[in-house]
Amino acid sequence: MQISKRLTGLTGGGSDGWGLFAKARAMVARGEAVTELTIGEHDIGTDPEILAAMDASARGGHTGYAAVPGTPALRAEIARRVAARTGVPTGPENVLVTPGGQAALFAAHMATCAPGDRALFIDPYYATYPGTLRGAGAEPVAVPARSRDQFQPRPAEIDARAEGARSLLINTPNNPTGVVYSPETLAGIAEVCRARDLWLVSDEVYDTQVWEGRHLSPRSLPGMAERTLVIGSMSKSHAMTGSRIGWIVGPPDAISHLANLATHTTYGVPGFIQDAALHALRQGTRLEEAIAAPFRRRREIALGLLAGQDIVRLIPAGGAMYLMLDIRATGLSGEAFAEALLERHRIAVMPGESFGTCAAGHLRVAMTVEDAAFAEALSTLMEFARECATCDAI
After folding, report:
1. By the 8 A CB rule, do 20 and 38 touch?
2. For an engineered disulfide with 369, which of 96, 108, 362, 373 has Cβ 3.0 to 4.6 Å away?
3. Mind telling me which residue stretches traverse the membrane in this protein (predicted)?
4. Domains and CATH numbers, the chain
């Protein structure tokens, strides 16, 4: 029996981008000490208060089927949060609760794209984006954002690829680059979406991790609320990665259809997890800032270390829990450098090539180990880069 092409073709016949991560995890499983700076997983657990709320809800009986669009209280709290942060009037009817941001991305493209429709996304991209679009039946079309532009996408590049497209997926603050899209970039993106009648799918799961400037949700721009689906999640803002709870915010009609899709796919999110998310959101910015603080601190550590050399170039890290490092001065690809760094120094970082062609010759470094270990690993990476650039170390 054959598996459907929808599944066998998810990665487009190429790598899924996770090869080095899998290799590092295999080394750890063998008992080797590896400093893992690969995935966006916090080095702290979920706050005990959130876990206590989850436990109390489960023990209190909220373990049966929960409301598929989300519990009324959680939908209302998410709407309140979004309205307060963006200034856009938002009610529960604008919110669908999903099993994490990844499920939200898939559902959003099921809503916006018919089979075979062109779906635009920005390169560099989070590794699952092209497969998510293919899984929804769309044809993924990459729009380049270049290192020389500090990975800010050019609206003209989007417009040049927009013929026949139905949607555009963006992510700011950005994974993998750490870039926060400027107001000018977002205004240009919005102009293209309006002119080309595109849905905008805006992945904003890092909206609490902004180190410079401010996060601007494109849903707040003129004429965009009716054509924007915003993806949110508790994973990054509240260190709830394993709880799998996120949301989509959009026009009520779209949310109604998405709720129907959820009825036929996920059948919602467990009630006790929704109750824990509600408790977490009601803590306000106090908890969000505490979760973000280690990454803000480690970014400052990195800025200090990188300032003392000229081989490794930091792409301006305005947000998110990652650094994007340009290591082209070493003469190596991101893949070759990352493989050698893992083999020789037991430090695992993600090669830029895992995130598209535009990030070739770069590395994504997750700031996800404690401060001293992070500083030591980054110092070792820079020294290795110097050796590669001056002594043909590979």
Report:
1. yes
2. 373
3. none
4. 5-45+286-391 (3.90.1150.10), 64-285 (3.40.640.10)
